[in-house]
Write a structure and sequence with these properties.
Elements: E1 11-14, H1 27-35, E2 38-41, H2 44-53, E3 60-62, H3 69-80, E4 85-88, H4 101-109, E5 113-116, H5 122-130, E6 137-139, H6 147-157, E7 163-168, H7 173-184, E8 189-194, E9 202-207, H8 208-217, E10 226-230, H9 236-240, H10 244-255, H11 260-271, H12 275-287
Parallel strand pairs: 1-4, 1-5, 2-3, 2-4, 6-7
Antiparallel strand pairs: 7-10, 8-9, 8-10
Length: 288
């Protein structure tokens, strides 16, 4: 078994923490947190429970994007003096709708090495299990709290062909889904992932109107950490799907256990239909 390396001196580490299940803590992240000189935490009281669980005694100081400039300068001074700083947020990967951008930007400007540790991220975890196209996507963070601004955001994204990823708070999820129905239309495919990696992890999949109805009818779906993914815009001819003959050929190839990408290419050559449309059609069938 390889020995986990200690943190390097004078380096700012961006360290992910679990978003629910403590078993998701990666060994490299543990090693960095254990050997760093200081941990810059979004909330030291919240992160203290995590440190206690993993028996990490490294000192922590509070740092978030609303910290005063003195705190940022203190961390930069530590780094310039050769100390190791580990940056963490309350959960998941820092900077992904979490604090840290200002510190990372300042460190790079000062010529300080910044090393990311791969790990938990709710947006990517939700995308990987959504069944929506993942070759192109955009992460939009939390939509605005007010309906007017939220609709304006959704309107600007309505024709975007990429998969759209949003975070949403429990007390706004129903209103946000209502605005999606109005702006994206009642038939846009969406997936709502809730409490990823936790005991009550749930994935709801269907049209905007169907998912909204499920959330309205079940108050449990209006609790916890929520990720909403919406299928990107598709032109009417794409929505109609491949021809019946192209679908038949594609299904035969898939039944023969050909990889999806290869099957789409061969079916396109045989039928004359578009490869991308066949690929998306097969993905939708898997999701259904």
């Amino acid at each position: 078994m390889a020995v986990r390396p200690s943190a390097k001196p004078g380096v700012l580490y961006v360290v992910p923490t679990p978003i629910g299940n403590l078993a998701d803590m990666v060994p490299r992240a543990l090693s960095v947190l254990q050997t760093a000189d200081v941990i810059a935490a979004e909330d030291t009281r919240h992160s203290g429970k995590l440190m206690q669980h993993f028996q990490i005694t490294t000192p922590m100081i509070a740092y978030h994007d609303f910290s005063n400039e003195n705190r940022g300068e203190e961390l930069l001074n530590r780094l310039e003096q050769g100390q190791t700083v580990a940056l963490i947020s309350d959960a998941g990967t820092p900077l992904i709708s979490d604090p840290g951008y200002r510190l990372v930007a300042a460190a790079r400007q000062a010529g300080i090495q910044v090393i990311p540790i791969p790990g938990a991220c709710a947006a990517i975890a939700a995308l990987s299990a959504s069944g929506l196209p993942s070759d192109r996507f955009t992460f939009e963070g939390f939509p605005p709290a007010k309906s007017g601004a939220r609709k304006e955001l959704f309107s600007g994204l309505a024709a975007d062909p990429r998969t759209l990823i949003f975070y949403e708070s429990p007390h706004r999820i129903l209103a946000s889904l209502t605005d999606m129905v109005e702006v994206f239309g009642p038939q846009r495919r969406i997936v709502m992932a809730r409490e990823i990696s936790k005991t009550f992890e749930t994935f709801l999949s269907g049209t905007t109107s169907a998912v909204r109805a499920q959330v309205e009818a079940d108050l449990d779906q209006q609790r916890g950490e929520i990720v909403v993914l919406a299928e990107g815009y598709r032109a009417p001819e794409e929505v109609d799907g491949p021809s019946a003959e192209a679908q038949r050929v594609m299904q035969l190839l898939l039944d023969a256990q050909l990889p999806l990408k290869q099957a789409a290419g061969l079916a396109a050559e045989i039928s004359g239909d578009k490869k991308n449309r066949l690929y998306d059609w097969a993905l939708r069938r898997r999701a259904d």
